[in-house]
Design brief:
The complex is a heterodimer of chains A (113) and B (113). Chain A is 0% helix and 58% strand. By secondary structure, chain A is mainly β. In chain A, the strands form two sheets. In chain A, strands 2, 4, 5, 9, 10 and 11 form a six-stranded mixed β-sheet that branches. The radius of gyration of chain A is 14 Å and the shape is globular. With 113 residues, chain B is mainly β. Chain B is globular, with a radius of gyration of 13 Å. The model of chain B has no long low-confidence stretch (mean pLDDT 92). Classes of the chains: A mainly beta (113), B mainly beta (113). The interface between A and B is medium-sized, with 24 and 27 residues.
């Protein structure tokens, strides 16, 4: 089956860059997504990237995709305490029925002042 | 107003009780999903639906049932709740035209005593 892996924890100091990594196993992935979950809230879509792209930038967020290594990363520049949350990587592949996504377990980002 | 709403937001119940969690959306999406979230396990898919006549089991459907009463409404039932169904439950919607991006409700925290 599809497997999406993330490290569980990341701590950074305010103002530094954060890099959250994700690996996946299905080479037929078509879209890859990053979601953010703040305490007590649902998941909020941050960004997504199509598999024929290798980079996407949106303000402080940069997504890098290495399709050969099946590796996805999310870089947050100038990390703020408000960025503290759980970040989920998800992928959709050509075999996904009805738009089903496969999620990683989430990376808890803690930002220290 | 929120595009995806869930009721109730919190519920405490006893073992053996029947519980229904409701989800409504105003996004006009055809696809709807139910997930549960447990600490350290990420999101696991319970059921998903393409339209009112289409219901599909996810990874962990045992002990749950669903009803798609209308395109905008998708409810999740626990026929006889048990303590290991204590979790955070999320409803999500998606539209194929939007790269199957899923939009999440705020969640229902369910505790089974």
């Amino acid at each position: 089956g599809e497997d999406v892996e993330q490290s569980l924890f990341l701590s950074v100091r305010e103002g530094d860059s954060s890099v959250i990594n994700c690996t996946y196993t299905d080479s037929s992935s078509t879209y890859l997504y990053w979601y953010k979950q703040e305490p007590g809230a649902g998941l909020q879509l941050l960004t997504y990237i199509f598999s024929n792209m290798d980079m996407k930038q949106d303000q402080r967020l940069t997504v890098l995709l290495n399709k050969k290594d099946k590796h996805l990363s999310l870089r947050i520049a100038d990390t703020q305490t408000g960025d503290s949350a759980i970040y989920f990587c998800a992928e959709k592949n050509r075999g996904s029925t009805l738009g089903r996504l496969y999620f990683g377990r989430g990376t808890q980002l803690t930002v220290w002042p | 107003d929120a595009d995806v709403t869930q009721t109730p937001r919190n519920r405490i119940t006893k073992t053996g009780k029947r519980i229904m969690l409701e989800c409504s959306q105003t996004k006009g999406h055809d696809r709807m999903y139910w997930y549960r979230q447990d600490p350290g396990l990420g999101l696991r898919l319970i059921y998903y639906s393409f339209d009112v006549k289409d219901i599909n089991k996810g990874e962990i459907s045992d002990g749950y049932s669903v009803s798609r009463q209308a395109q905008a409404k998708f409810s999740l039932s626990l026929e006889s709740a048990i303590p290991n169904q204590t979790a955070l439950y999320f409803c999500a919607t998606a539209a194929r035209e939007q790269a199957d991006t899923q939009y999440f409700g705020p969640g229902t925290r369910l505790t089974v005593l």
